[in-house]
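REQUEST FORM: STRUCTURE PREDICTION
Request ID: SP-0412
Submitted by: Lab K.M.
Chain count: 1
Length (residues): 274
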Amino acid sequence: MKKRIIVIGKRGLLGSNLSSYLKKKKFILNLDYKIFIKKKLNFISNFDYIINCTSNQNYIENKYLEKNDFDLAIANKIKNLDIKMIMLSSRKVYKNGTNLKESSVLKPKSNYSRNKLRTEKALLKILKKKILILRISNVIGLNTKKNNKLHRVFIDVFFENIKKGIIFNNKNSYKDFIPVNKFCEIVEKLITFNAYGIYNVSLGKKIFLKEIVSWLNLYNNKKNIKYVNLSKKYQSDSFTLNNDKLMNTIKIKITTQDLKKYCVKLSKELFKNH
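STATUS: Completed
RESULT:
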């Protein structure tokens, strides 16, 4: 049976790409958060999944307030319906380190990550086996909605700096990245397998920032590049996630070569008009 999915929020990186990817294989309805909240339950009950891809600045920047928690409001609205929810959480709920598993020490340091962890716990209690929580690593990709300035991600910061002729010197820093096309494939597979609970979503590999910057900068013809040292705060923010639980569930492979290929493709697209 073809799954019927509501994607809430389509202007950000994940919402825009998920919508574009899933509509080829599923029935997708995009809704603004405020419109969804006003929808009647008999309408929502026609769907199989809700994926929330939106948030707000107060939730991201400030201490937790229930009124700012869109995920919680959605969960409370659908808690008595036979419908599943996908929450997009963050790897930042963990303490920094390598090979971080879903059972690893949780030590959120920012309001955003503390809020995400609090929301996770609330949704698990409310929805039980009807909630799928994705702790996502750094996603590399472009927003399919042009001229959107609502959410800046790694690629946005990179391109803004490179247009100024600046590259941060990330010699010793590494992170765990995943290309957005693979992220979308993972979400679709998890839906197919009716997965629930908490999953790390990542490449599961240590990628030094100097590597990914070189891939993204491949088609840049600008000669005068200034290298700026990264602050100690960002140098200490290195991490990798363990994605064994995810891979054992969906039975696909994601390689460093997949990430490199995608970054080179992005580079060509980013610099073709510059």
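NOTES: The CA atoms of residues 98 and 176 lie 9 Å apart.
Reviewed by: T.R.
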